[in-house]
Every structure is written in C-alpha cells, then in structure tokens.
Amino acid sequence: MLDTEASREPVVGGVERVNNQYALDPLNLAHASTVERAAEALRQALFAGDLAPGTPLREVALADSLGVGRSTVREAMTLLAAEGLVTRIPNRGVLVTAHDDAQVKDVVHARLVLEAAGVRAWHEATAADRQEVREAFEAYAQLIGGGAPVRAVSEAHLDFHISLVALTASTRLVTVAQSLAAEIRLALAHVDRVRGNVLDQLESHRRLLAVLESGDGDATITELRAHLRAGESSLLQALDQQV
Questions:
Q1: Which residues contact 145 (CB under 8 A, 6 or more apart)?
Q2: Cβ of 115: how many Cβ atoms within 10 Å?
Q3: Count H helices, E strands: the chain?
Q4: pLDDT band at residue 101 under the 50/70/90 scheme
Q5: Quick one: which of 60, 88, 90 has its CA closest to 72?
Q6: Residue 20: exposure state from Cβ atoms within 10 A (0-12, 13-18, ≥19)
Q7: How far is the C-alpha of 50 from the C-alpha of 46, rounded, in Å?
Q8: pLDDT tens digits for 55-74?
Q9: Which of 111, 128, 161, 239 has the least CB density, counted as fewest CB within 10 Å?
Q10: Structural domains for the chain
Q11: DSSP 77-121
C-alpha cells in the first residue's frame, strides 16, 4: 500500500504536491477570487467611461464602495497597473491612466499602418476573414441600435478595426493591433461616453466598409486615414478638456 503521507510534498505559497498533483489552499483561492472581483468591478467602471483618464483612485473610498478591505483594493490596483489601466505616481497615488498628445498620435499612426496593411490585403484575404469584417461591423451596429453600455460599444468598435488587421492573416500583426487597442480602450470609452455622436460614428464605419467592399484600395486607405484622424482629434480634444 502506498504511504500517502510520504507522497505529500509541501510547496512554498500554500501549494502542496500530492501524488504528483498540485492542490491549492482554498483560503488563497478565495482571496484571489475577491481581488479579481474587485479588479473586474474597477475595470467595468473604467471601460464604461465613468472614471476619466487622470482621475485619482483613493483606496479608502474604493474599499468602502466595493465592501472589501484596503489590502484587497491595493492588490486589485496592482493587477490593473500591470494591464496599463492605472498608473502609480510617487507622492500622488494611483490615477486612471491618461495618454499625452504624443502618445495618442503615435498609437493612431501605428493603427493606420496596421489597418492599411489589412485593407491592401482585402482581395487576397480568405472569404472567412472578409466575412469577419462584415460581422464585426454588424455586431457594432446592433449594439449602437440597441443602446448598449459604452464599454460594449467601445469594445465592438475596436473589434471591427482589429478585424481589418486580421485580413493580413498575420497573427503577430493582430497581436500588435490588440495591444494598441488595449492602450486606447480607456480613452476611447471616455470619448464615446461624452461626445454623444454614436450615430455619426456608426455612419463613418459604414462608409469605410462600403469603400472597402468596392475594391478600391486607394480610396479605402484615404477613407481609413480620414476616419482615424477624426478619432485622433476627438481623443486630443478630450485630453485638452482634462487639463
């Protein structure tokens, strides 16, 4: 008979190995779950545009609002900082991440390069990838028509643009596009919330898709450039209003 005690190997951090399998301490799991729930509640507020870029985040107020301890809020902030959603500044505490003018322009420039590559690949792209662009637009349009929350609309908005990059059939380029989307998502959510012209935005995307479907690559690049520059202008205006 196996000696079950002999087969148990303690491991640092509340994890032990039993018969070559790892068992986690339930208390550690419960704590991790609480931290993640707190982080997700903050993400929802951030992506809904409820907290503008640059807004200070106070541990005591957040702990009271979420019904958790300050240490839980502190760990949740660490998770959000790793995701680039909040920024720790010495002697100022934690702020909602805000981009300056140069950063916004750089992100938009990078998006233009990536999405233009996708537009140029339209004819060579698979039917499935072209259909993905159409479906991404329809998902975005339905959310706007249904009065969906800002977070959902902003994510669908960015998903449409990522689907353009996916026309290149390059997983690496798509990964870069997703990273850029993560950088701009907070600012975009705030802008989408305050500018209130979602129908104009929808029409701009519809026009971009129509030109793309026409097969005129040069015209689509021109439309894409104008579309992204308009978005850049809105983001920069929002930044100026926060100063």
A1: none
A2: 27
A3: 9, 6
A4: confident
A5: 60
A6: exposed
A7: 6
A8: 899 999 999 999 999 999 99
A9: 128
A10: 8-96 (1.10.10.10), 101-242 (1.20.120.530)
A11: HHHHHHTTSEEEETTTEEEE----HHHHHHHHHHHHHHHHHHHHT
Give the pLDDT of residue 199.
Answer: 82
Residue 66, classed as helix, strand or coil, is helix
Q: Give 224's strand partners.
A: none
* Nearest of 167, 192, 162 to residue 177 by alpha carbon: 162
Calpha distance 66→62 (Å, rounded)? 6
* Strand 21-24 versus strand 56-57 pairing type: unpaired
Q: What pTM does this model have?
A: 0.72
Q: Which two tokens stand for residue 109?
A: 């420039």
Q: Which of 176, 193, 181 is nearest to 46 (CA)?
A: 193
| Cα dihedral sign, 191-223-104-236 | negative
User: Token digits for 174?
Assistant: 């798509």
Question: Is the predicted pLDDT of residue 35 greater than 60, yes or no?
Answer: yes
Distance, CA of 216 to CA of 92 (rounded, Å) = 51
pLDDT at 11: 42
| Tens of pLDDT, residues 184-201 | 877 777 676 665 567 888
Q: CA-based angle 60:67:39, to the nearest 5?
A: 80
